[in-house]
Amino acid sequence: MTSAAWHLHRASLHANDDALGEGANVSAALPASAGVRSNAGASASDAASGPAVAKAAAEPPPYRVKTAVVEHSFSEAAQRLGLDAATTAQLTKAFAGRVDFRRDLQRGSEVSFVFRNAAGSANPQTNAQTNPQADTQTNAPASDARAAASTSTPTQPATSAGAASRTPVAVRISTGTASHDLFLYRNLAGKAFYYSADGHSAAPSFLRYPVKFTRISSHFALRRLDPVTHRIQPHEGVDLAAPVGTPVHATARGTVTWVGWKTGYGKVVMLDNFGPYSTTFAHLSRYAKHLKAGDSVRQGQVIGYVGATGWATGPHLHYEVHVDQVAQDPLTVDLPHRDPLRGADKQRFAQQVERLDALL
Ligand SMILES: [Zn+2]
């Protein structure tokens, strides 16, 4: 994804987070949330105890649950359960911050999906042509009002057949030692995203700082007199002073692209993060044990330790954030981030989780 797309994406995320008072989104969302309220109560008991008693006597049960044993991969199991490739890819991304599919997902792990059944009492607002791509925050921006309206399907209890029945409203991966759940939730601003049961977003995000530092010893600058080379050159990162040996953490999940020595940088680790982002951690005293190129790392994982290797006048971490290969100021660069659910959204979500968790 391009940087521009990510920024748009971020803009839409912010709109979601902050849009409860925003006219356009709210007016689109209100009938939807009313729909959730009126039908959801019935849904819970329907699922547990019997035939639908909502609007039409002939309505099918509101949910169906499908489970598969993983034989080869998550995507293989997901597709066996009827997910299309796009939805499978979204879920793979949504889980990526929590589950390492190569390491954690063994043969014999189980994958369960809860789907909402299409029902007769379609919300007139919903759109059977809903693009599931727009349903999670791991995707391209759904920033315009039309997209927002058209994605109102997945969390509606009653819609026409279509994306609603193909996009799972709850997903559980059971690895034998642990289980990982995600729940689709449409917020009051009218957009649907996957969250963990505690209401934290499944979206990949960035930490601002990779290290506990004592001070910023040098700022990002396009022109700087380098204290070691005594030449004017750009300083493409920020220097965070910290004692030798202070752990350095990955600021976002990613893949290790370099572990080794580079002129000037000394011992350096480079990560290719998601989207257009990559990060560099230089002047390390040492690397995390066994870290090598190709490894995937999680956000917060220790990747090395502060040092003063390379061209450094004292112990500090030189930290760079690149967006589409262009260095940006790590202290101010716009980073993907999504706040946990709060307030009324959090309460509605908790009720939904209770209902769906019982089905998994
Ligand atoms: Zn530096």
From TrEMBL:
Biased composition (Polar residues): 120-137
Keywords on record: Hydrolase, Metal-binding, Metalloprotease, Protease, Zinc
InterPro entries: Cell_wall_metabolism_enzyme, Dup_hybrid_motif, M23ase_b-sheet_dom
One Pfam family of this chain: Peptidase_M23
Cofactor(s) in the UniProt record: Zn(2+)
Stretches with biased composition (Low complexity): 138-165
Domain M23ase beta-sheet core span(s) in chain numbering: 234-330
Molecular functions per Gene Ontology: metal ion binding; metalloendopeptidase activity
Region feature (Disordered): 120-168
GO biological process: one example: proteolysis
Protein name, UniProt field: Peptidoglycan DD-metalloendopeptidase family protein
Organism of origin: Paraburkholderia acidisoli
